[in-house]
Design brief:
mainly alpha, 3 helices, rod-shaped
Length: 186
Amino acid sequence: MLTPIDIQKKVFTRKFRGYCDEEVDIFMDQITQDYEKLVRENQDLKEQLEQVNKNIARYREIEEVLKNTMILAQKSAEEVRQNAEKEAQLLMDKARIEADRIIRESEQEAAAILQEAGQRAGDSIAEAEGKVSLILEEYHRLENQARIFKMRFRSFLETQLKILEGEHDDTPFEREEQVEENENLD
């Protein structure tokens, strides 16, 4: 490739009836300037292209890092979701176990309370039955005493009536003995 210096230093050979030296020199100066301008522009464009290529490479690296970061973030999010689900499941299992334990304890406590209440009720019933039995025995004893008293009193009154009427055969003591014998037979 020609450089602007090559163009400037180019010397043409002279021939008879050749070109005007001045016009050729002016034209060559213009070409040199334009060529220098094109070379600079080309060099600038190459530098810009190199910078753009560097930027593209950097952007590709950033893109790759972002892709990897997104993949890692997705994996992390999935792991976090799975861990949260596992933790939630563990908490639910723990709550179920605790609820089952509380229910069992409550059932045991209720059974103990029912058993104790049943025992107390049984004791109260037995005590009441014992009292009723004693009261019935006392009632029967008093009933017998009342019957004996009635019989003795009737016998006494009959004796008194007979005495009043003058018909007394037995003494009052003999009558009492007969009443006691009758009671023993009952």
